[in-house]
Each structure stands twice: as C-alpha cells, then as structure tokens.
Design a protein that fits this description.
heterotrimer, A alpha/beta (497), B mainly alpha (346), C mainly alpha (306), B: 346 residues, mainly alpha, 13 helices, 73% helix, globular, disordered C terminus, C: 306 residues, ABC transporter involved in vitamin B12 uptake, BtuC, two-stranded antiparallel sheet, 2 strands
C-alpha cells in the first residue's frame, strides 16, 4: 500500500541557508511518525513545505502514490493534510463552534451536533458553545485538533503539541493520537522529547542541519544516546552536578508574600502567592501555560501592580515600579521578547543602552561610545555570539534577538535577582547549553534566579527548588532533588489535594 | 533615530516614487477641475504664476508657513512617542484665544514687548493644557488620543465663538463677531523692511531645537523607545507615562504658540475663521515628511504655498478657496500610499 | 414639560439618524479591524451627493442611493490605502475627511441655497397616536423609519451569518482567515466600503430629510462623534443606536428651547455633544477597550511612528 503522503528530495533555501537539503519523508496510514531534531534542524521548514505555506526549490510529492503539488494551505487541506500549529490558530473571542465553522462552509449554529459527535468519536472532549478565550490550553488544543479532523484530514500533523501541557494532559493527548492511528489516520508528531517518541511513535525521522539523519526507522532499534547523537551530531555532556550549596541563613533577594494581582484581561491572575529566592539559588517555576507564571515574573520586576501582599527585593520593599526593581539589582529575560523587550526600529547598541544599570551620559545625550564599549564587554563575557551592534532588531531572526537579550541580562555581574522566562526558546542545543551554564554561573556568583520554563527536564536539571503554579496559585514547592514528573504534573493540574 | 545608510539607488527610487505620487495627485486634481468645467491648465498656471512671481505672495507664504511649522512640530514630537495628535487645530485656537486674553487684558497697562512675551507664553501654556486633556485621558482612561484630540478641536472652536460673540465682542466694532485689535506695540515686530514678522525665527529655532532634542539627547532617545515599544520602555525602567505626557504637552505648547504667533503677528484680533485649518494642514505637513523635524519646514512651505494659491484661485477662477483642500488631500493620500519604502514598519 | 421632552426626543431621533447610520458604518469597519476617521468625509460627500442628485433628478430616493454610493466610494479609497498600501489608518482617514471637505465645497457651491425635493415626515397611522412614543418614533421621514431596521439587522448578521463571522474574524485575528483560504484584505475592504455606504446614507438623510439644504461643512463633526460613539458602545450595534439618539437629543435641545423663546447659549449647546462624548469616554474608556476586537486594539494602542 502506498504511503498517504511522501516527499522526495525536498530542498528549500532561505538566502544563504539551506533549510531543507534533499529531505525524504513519508507518512503511512495507521501510523504515528515522529519528526525530531533540535531547533533550526529544518523541522518547521519541512512542515511549511508540506502544508503549502512555502514552496520547495526542488523535490516532488506523492499523495497515495500519485504525484501531487501543494501550493497553498487550502490545497493541503483539500488533499486531507491537517496541521495543528504550536501556537494554535484559534480566535479567542469566538466560540469553539465558530472557530470550526471558519474551516467548514457551514453556519456556526448548525455545527454543534456534529462537533459533539466528532468529539465523542475521537475522544476529544470540548464544549462547542464555549468561548475559546475561556478554555485551558489543553482544551484549546483539542478544539484545534477537532477542527482539523472535521475538515476531513487523513494526515494530522502536530507541531510540538505537548510543550505547553502538564504531563498528564500530554499523556491524554498521546492517547488521543493512538486513537487516531487506530482509525487509520496518518499522524505526524514533531517533538524533541525522546520519551514521547518512545511512548507513541511507530517510526522516527531525525533531521539535523536540514538533512535527514535517520529516515523513518523504528525507534526501538536505537537507544537514547544514539538518538541524541543523531539529533545534535555529538553527545551532550550532562550539566555539572557539582554545584556550590545554597548558602543558608542569608536574607532572600526576592521575597513575595501574599501577593494577588490582576492579569491583562482584568481577571485575577495571581492569588495569595508566597515565595522566596535566596542568593545563590535557582528557583524553577513550573505550570501549565497561563497559570500565572508571567504575572509572577512581572510583579517581581515591578512591572505589574499588585492588589494585595508585599514584594521585597534585597530585603527592602519594592517601590517605584520597574525602575525600583532595576535599581535594586533585578534583570530579566522576558517571556515574549517581541512584545516585552524589542524596539523593532532600534539597533543592538540602543537596546544595550536600555539594559545598562545606568545609562552613560555625555551632556544631554547618551554616551554612545561608552555604550559600545559596554556592549563589547558583555558580548565577550557571555560568549553567545551576538550580532554586530549596529544591526537593527527588526532585521534579526528570533534566535539572534534572543541572543541579544540574553547577553544583556546574563552578562552583568551586578545583577542580584535574575528573572529568566523561557531563556532557551528558539535556541539550538549548543546555545541552550551555554545559556544554562550562564544561569549556573550567575547562581555561583551569588545572584538569585527565578527560572520559568515549560521543560520539566530543564527545570529539574537547573533548579534548587521547583515552585509549581496552578490557576494563579502556588500549588507547591518541591526541592528539585526530590521532584518527580508525576508529582509535578499532579501539582500542575491542581489535583494535589 | 536609526542611522541607516541609504544607498544612492534607494534614494533615487524614493525620489522617483515621490515624483510619481505628486504627479498623480496633480493629474487627479486636474481631472476633477475638468469635471467641474474649469480648464485645469489655466487654473494651475494661474495658481503658479500668482503665487511664485510676486514678492508679496512669497512673503505671504513664509508668514503662512510659520504657524504651520510650529503646529506640525506639535505632531512630530508626540509621533516620536507613538502618539497621534490630531488636535493641532484646537490647540492653535486655544493658543490664540489665550494670547488674545492675555494681550487684550494687559496691553493698556504694560509695555508692548512685555505684553508680547506674556501672550506668547500664555498661548503656549494654553495649547499645552488643551493637549494635556487628551494626554491625561489616554493615560488614565486609555482613550485613544486621536479620537479625543479631534473632539477637543470642536470644543475649542465653540469656546472661541462663544467669546467673540458675547463677552469679548468689540463694542466699538462694526457689529462683526470679533474682539478689538491688539495694540500695535504688543504685536510681533517685522523683520527689516519685509512684511514677515519675527515669528519665522521662532519657528525655525523650534524646528532646529526639535531636531536636536529628538536626535541628540537622551530624552529624544527615550521618547523613541516609548514610541517604538512602550511595554519594553516600561520594563527598561523608563518613566513611560511621564514621557508620553511630556511629548503631548510639548506638542500642544508648540501648537498653542503657533496660535499666539498667528494672533500677534497676522490677525491681531479674534474672529470666527481665525485659524483657516492651520492645525489640520500641519497634521498633513508632518505626515508628508513622516514626522521628521527639519523637512517639516519644507512641507509647511509647500502647503502654505498651496493655500495661498487657493486664495488666488478664488479671485481668478471663481472656485471656492476650499478647493485646494482637494489638492492637499490628494497630495497626502499619494504620499501616504506610495512613498513608503518597502519593509518599513507601520 | 412633557411636551418639551417629546420634542427633544423626537428631534433626537430625527437628528440622531445620521450619526447612527455613520456610527453603524464605523462599527462594521472597526469590527473588521479598520478605523475610518474619514467617516466625517463620507457623511459630507453623502450629504452633498444626496442633495445634488435629488435636486437634479427630482427624486430624493435617487439622492439617497447616490449618497450611499458616494460614501462607499470615499471609503473605498480608505480601504485601498490602508489595506492594500498599508498606510496609517488615522492619517489616511483624516486626509480623506479633508479631501471630502474640499471636494464638497468645490462641487457644492452650485447647491448652496438651491431647493431640492426632500423627504417629508409621514405619520404612521395609529402608532403615531400613542402618547410620547408616537411622536418620538412614528412621526418621521421614511429614511428614519428605514434606519430603524439597520442596527437589528446588523446585530443579527454579525452574530449569526457566516459572512458576519468572517468580518468578526478579520477584526480579531486576520491570520486565521488567511489560513483558511480567505482574503482578509477583501473582507476588511468590503466592511469598510459597506460602512462608508451607511455613512453616505446618513449624510444624505442629513441633507434631504433633516436640514433640507446643503451648506459647506454641514456635518459639523458628526462623523467624529460617530467614531467616538462606536468606542463607548463597545462595538455593539444596538448600543450604538442608544448613543446616537442621545446625541441627536443633545443637538435638539437648543433649537427646541429657542423655539419656546428661552435664551440659550448657542455655543455651549454646540459644544455639549463633544464634551459629553469626552466625559463618557473618560469614565468608561478603559473598560470598553477590553471589548475591542484584537486587531483593532493594535491599531489603537500603537500608532504613528515612522
């Protein structure tokens, strides 16, 4: 039986970069095929080519064994290819039914019954009348998958679907994928978690540097180090386990007591949260996306006003908003750089000037020569390979922007509290590793670190303690050494009691 | 702010786009005149001849451009902070009203130059206060300033009309709704033997000063950060609200000053049609050059010339003076739509 | 006293109709994610075209249709520039207002002081005899009756129809439309043009059914009030109606009082609608902003840098 979908020799070039280099990839009916590789390996490019967002420079495609050309997402859908994007393509202000109606030529109010039927058939429970903005991330994802299935997809591609979910939710999703496989659909899951590959995939394809390294092999035939080596081209040594102990009896750099705060939508986003970060300690923050992590970082940085409770930085109550927090020695790597930190039309130097503890002045102007010197020093100290100082941020890729912001926050020796949200997003394995080492270096230098991440493995490897958030509350704080995934997952889902 | 070198080829292409846009606007204008039954060639030729061949009209253009430059800077500075000040018209009116209030109150008792300085200051402060209303509403209630400044324009006009129809009406006038004229001693002095008042110096200094501040000071840099991404500015510890307020107040102050200069240099009394759309024209002038403080001078001169040409239009061709708004509008539409380089952010 | 109230309310409905139509048009555009400050210009060209065509053809109905078309044409320019050429929405809208001012004064000279057939009030039998409500709602010109239908229809259409869903999506998240193979630009453009047609209709009502005259700048900022009204009506058509009639009533107070021989300050009364709009925005501005369509919120929150 021919594969549902097969591509041969797909090649795609972006300027100098060969993002896909003669890639072969196939999906059969009734299988789950895992596509793995580190950031920048070419996974997203391949998906975009398959889904018709971009066109390959070379290569052919077959659907059910017949040659086919897909030039747009609409054609891809018509051919039965469905894509569940990592950042879901749902409209928050609309109901589930209305969102699904956008994909089907039907009036939304005539769709409820069909949605209920489909959600029972595929085991994806979701309320068609609910407004998407009110749903949890897991529910939204189910709605998105349902939307894809109801448009008649025979091939379902999921782009890193579990990265924003708690372990239990992720397990449920993997279960749903097995259900799809049983119905004869071809399922592609993009992931970088080997655990998931083992749990659900029948075959695995590994990409590295735009090339296929392992082509549709049975993962059972390879052990973990072999798969990791295939992904990164070398073995990654574990992070140093020998670390200085957290000094005892010191006064915390950050003390949050009974803090309540509202989110942007006006709803209560933080409820009665209490937390301390000691100097020389990394406190990890885990939680399903949108559980209050963002708001916790923001109150600690003085960016978001609180309605109750107290925040102390370096032993003093935090006053004067962001200015006060920066003066008290806080620095941040923000969750969403483009919204929170990047001024698109400005240069790297100008961004550096903003991040310096005191903007150097010459007369009424900024002393740009000093800024340039400081930039050079930071770049040297951090060693993330930042682009030149005159480059305009709007012209940089996500990874290069993140390097600029990491250099700005991680290079300074005078930082007492470092708030780092998803610091390794969009970075390749080597840069991620360097970033993690820098975080440990800050810790060793006596700074307190509040580290938010969606990667439990990263949190367990770096943190001294892990605080788990659920629905704006602190569901629990666990010493990292004693933490286990199931326990953390239960806390993340609020079912600790 | 961003000092990117522009390749000569890009510049040529840019110039080409500009020329095409302007030509397109002129052609459309000519077509409209045709539809109206006028001969576009005669009209345009007449406009050009009467505008550019006689020294008095050239002086008129310069005089007209003074409040336009100042009021355009009132758009430039807030725009740097990401704010849209469409309230120049109201700020100019209120500036003129305050200048008249101060001037007509004090000119019998104080020496002229003192009155002049006080009325200019008064006009500036009043303009700043008027813009401040919109700024405060943006900062406290989150209401978009483009909407509020527009509404404030109409209120300012009603304030003016109320005053000149009732309390400030000149009892010795000819029954027209207007105040008495400002004493000669308190008026803006003229430059040498020309008809141009010294306000032109103030306007040029203001443009140069704005350029320096925006380009060469930490304040200008911060304003640019706030305009580029207010969230990032706040997280970098910049006093965002204070900067926004400062930008809007400075802008309003300059527009108010424009009104005061227009009063003390050209009008000398308040009357209903006082501002002749200075505020709106200035908004267009600022957009014409994408809010760059020095080119604003050129844009203001251009629009001043078009306006003066409009007056001759009325005399020569019997078309209403407002006809030139069609040309101005078309010019700006062409510029807004067709002169931006590819890839520029909105 | 109740007589006075009836007169003010009735004047409010008659005078508020133009504002209501313009504001409903703006609601449509903004629900699709586009602010059109040129609404003032659409009203103006609608008013002149409506009046001129009524005068030339002798049919006010033809004037009405022509007014709507003129409003749509001006809005089409706005749509083209902001969607196709990605021009700044505020600057383009304001320029169009200016252009509208110029072009109506150029072509309007001939119609100043010229008579044209217009719409006369038609009392609806029985209904107009109901105390208070009768004269307030059912003793108007046909255009006003017609306008009663617009808001409910728009409400229903936005909420229930497929095309309404597409318009709402364009205002919330245009990339999703794109993903599903729709041209978000076309949907937005359609909404803006339809909105301009409604504003043009409002303008024609103003000249052929309300003022029975054309004069330069006769809309006097009604278009801007309409834009503000949409904001504090939180983009909901039915609330727009209430707001528009409120402003109509404010505009009607001065003439009603003057007709009874009361001395009122004309300019204070003229400023009143604008002052009240500002006050309402100041009080509920932040709350309504949360209700704003996402794409629109972006337009409102960031604005003119280079």
């Amino acid at each position: 039986m021919p594969a549902l979908l097969a591509v041969h020799g797909y090649t795609c070039r972006f300027g100098e970069v060969l993002a896909n280099d003669a890639v072969d990839f196939a999906v059969r009916a009734g299988e789950v095929h895992a596509l793995v590789g580190e950031n920048g390996a070419g996974k997203s490019t391949l998906l975009k080519l398959i889904y018709g967002v971009n066109r390959p420079d070379d290569g052919t495609m077959e659907l059910d064994g017949r040659p086919a050309v897909i030039a747009s997402p609409a054609q891809a859908r018509a051919a039965g290819i469905g894509m569940v994007f990592q950042d879901l393509r749902l409209v928050s202000a609309l109901t589930v039914a209305e969102n699904i109606a956008l994909a089907l030529p039907v009036r939304p109010d005539r769709l409820h019954k069909r949605i209920v039927e489909a959600s029972e058939r595929y085991g994806l429970a979701v309320d068609p009348a609910a407004r998407v903005g009110h749903l949890s991330i897991g529910e939204r994802q189910r709605a998105e998958i349902l939307k894809v299935l109801m448009t008649g997809a025979r091939i379902v591609i999921l782009d890193e679907p579990t990265s924003v979910l708690a372990p239990q939710e992720a397990a449920a999703l993997l279960e749903a994928m097995r259900g799809l496989r049983a119905q004869g659909l071809g399922v592609v899951i993009v992931t970088h978690k080997l655990r998931e590959v083992r749990e659900v995939a029948d075959r695995v394809t590994v990409l590295r540097g735009g090339k296929v390294v392992l082509a549709g092999v049975d993962p059972a035939g390879y052990d973990d180090p072999e798969l990791v080596r295939a992904m990164v081209g070398r073995t990654v040594p574990p992070l140093p386990a020998e670390r200085p102990a957290v000094p005892e009896n010191t006064s915390p750099v950050l003390r949050v007591t009974g803090v309540t705060a509202h989110g942007d939508d006006g709803r209560v986003a933080l409820k009665d949260v209490a937390l301390t970060v000691l100097p020389g300690e990394i406190v990890g923050v885990a939680g399903v996306a949108g559980s209050g992590q963002r708001e916790l970082c923001e109150v600690a940085l003085g960016v978001r006003p609180t309605t109750a409770g107290q925040i102390e930085l370096g032993g003093r109550p935090l006053t004067g908003g962001a200015r006060g927090a920066l003066a008290a020695g806080a620095a941040a790597v923000t969750e969403d750089p483009l919204t929170d930190a990047v001024v698109p039309g400005m240069s790297v130097f100008q961004h550096m000037a903003l991040g310096l503890p005191r903007m150097p002045r010459r007369g009424l102007d900024v002393d740009w020569r000093k800024v340039s010197e400081a930039t050079e020093n930071l770049d040297k100290a951090v060693g993330l390979g930042m682009v030149g100082g005159h480059r305009i941020l709007a012209s940089l890729s996500g990874g290069n922007i993140q390097r600029v912001l990491l250099t700005r926050a991680l290079g300074r020796a005078d930082v007492r509290l470092l708030v780092a949200a998803y610091p390794s997003r969009g970075l390749d394995v080597a840069t991620t590793r360097r970033t993690q080492e820098l975080l440990l270096a800050r810790r060793a230098a006596g700074a307190g670190v509040l580290l938010v991440s969606e990667d439990l493995d990263e949190l367990m490897a770096l943190s001294d303690r892990i605080a788990v958030m659920y629905d704006g509350r602190l569901a629990g704080i666990v010493p990292a050494a004693e933490a286990d995934r199931q326990e953390l997952g239960r806390l993340m889902l609020g079912s600790a009691a | 702010m961003t000092a990117t070198a522009t390749a000569p080829r890009d510049m040529l292409a840019g110039l080409g786009r500009w020329a095409a846009a302007l030509l397109g606007a002129l052609v459309l204008f000519a077509l409209l005149l045709l539809v109206k039954g006028a001969n576009p060639l005669t009209v345009l030729w007449g406009m050009a001849v009467s505008t550019f061949t006689s020294p008095p009209t050239i002086e008129q253009i310069v005089i007209k451009s003074v409040p336009l430059i100042l009021a355009a800077l009132a758009v430039v500075i807030p725009a740097r902070a990401g704010l849209t000040n469409v309230g120049g018209e109201g700020q100019v009116v209120i500036g003129a009203v305050a200048a008249a209030g101060v001037g007509l109150w004090l000119d019998p008792s104080l020496p002229g130059p003192v009155v002049l300085v006080l009325l200019l200051v008064g006009g500036g402060l009043a303009g700043a206060a008027w813009a401040g209303v919109a700024a405060v509403m943006r900062l406290t209630a989150g209401v978009n300033e483009a909407v509020t400044t527009l509404l404030l324009n109409y209120i300012a006009l009603d304030v003016l009309l109320y005053l000149i129809y009732q309390p400030w009406k000149d009892p010795e006038g000819s029954g027209q709704p207007a105040t008495r004229p400002l004493e000669v001693a308190a008026r803006l002095p003229l430059l040498g033997t020309t008809a141009v008042h010294v306000g032109v110096v103030l306007a040029l200094v203001a443009a140069l000063g704005t350029w320096l501040v925006l380009r060469r000071t930490a304040f200008g840099f911060r304003l640019g950060v706030v305009g580029g991404n207010p969230e990032a500015a706040g997280r970098a510890g910049l006093p965002v609200r204070r900067l926004l307020l400062a930008a809007m107040l400075t802008g309003g102050g300059l527009a108010g000053l424009a009104g005061a200069i227009h009063f003390a240099g050209v009008e000398f009394k308040l009357r209903p049609g006082l501002t002749t759309n200075i505020g709106y024209l200035a908004f267009l002038a600022s957009w014409l050059v994408r809010h760059r403080p020095l080119p604003v001078i050129g844009a203001a001169l251009l629009l001043a010339a078009v306006t003066i040409a409009g007056d001759s239009l009325q005399l020569d061709s019997g078309l209403p003076a407002a006809t030139v708004h069609v040309l101005t509008g078309l010019l700006l539409l062409a510029v807004l739509g067709w002169t931006r380089r590819k890839g520029d952010a909105t | 006293m109740s007589d006075l109230l009836t007169d003010v309310l009735s004047g409010g409905v008659r005078g508020g109709t133009a504002i209501m139509l313009a504001a409903l048009g703006e609601t449509l555009a903004e629900r699709a994610g586009v602010v059109n400050l040129g609404t003032e210009g659409c009203l103006l060209v609608g008013a002149l075209t409506g009046y001129a065509v009524a005068a030339e053809t002798g049919s006010p109905w033809a004037g009405l249709v022509a007014g709507a078309l003129a409003g749509a044409a001006l809005a089409l320019v706005h749509a083209g520039l902001v969607i196709w050429r990605r021009a700044d929405q505020f600057a383009t809208g304001l320029t169009l207002m200016f252009f509208g001012l110029g072009i109506t004064s150029l072509f309007g000279v001939a119609y100043v002081g010229k008579a044209a057939p217009g719409f006369a009030p038609v009392e609806i039998p029985l209904l107009s005899d109901v105390p208070v409500l009768g004269p307030v709602l059912f003793a108007h010109d046909p255009v006003t009756y017609l306008s009663y239908l617009v808001a409910p229809l728009m409400w229903w259409w936005l909420r229930r129809s497929r095309s309404g869903l597409l318009v709402r999506t364009a205002g919330e998240r245009a990339d999703v439309l794109h993903l599903h193979g729709y041209r978000a630009g076309l949907i937005r453009g359609g909404a803006v043009v339809a909105g301009g047609a409604l504003a043009g209709l409002g303008g024609a009502q103003l000249s052929t059914a309300y003022a029975h005259a054309w004069f330069e700048g006769m809309t006097a900022g009604r278009g801007f009030i309409a834009v503000a009204l949409v904001i504090f009506a939180a983009w909901r058509p039915l609330r727009v109606v209430a707001g528009a009639y409120l402003f109509g009533a404010l505009l009607a107070v001065a003439p009603v009082l003057q007709a009874r021989g009361h001395a009122v300050n004309q300019f204070a009364m003229d400023a009143l609608p604008f002052v009240i709009t500002l006050l309402i925005l100041a009080v509920i501005g932040r709350r309504t902003l949360r209700a704003a369509p996402q794409e629109l919120r972006r337009v409102f929150e960031s604005s003119s840098s280079n």
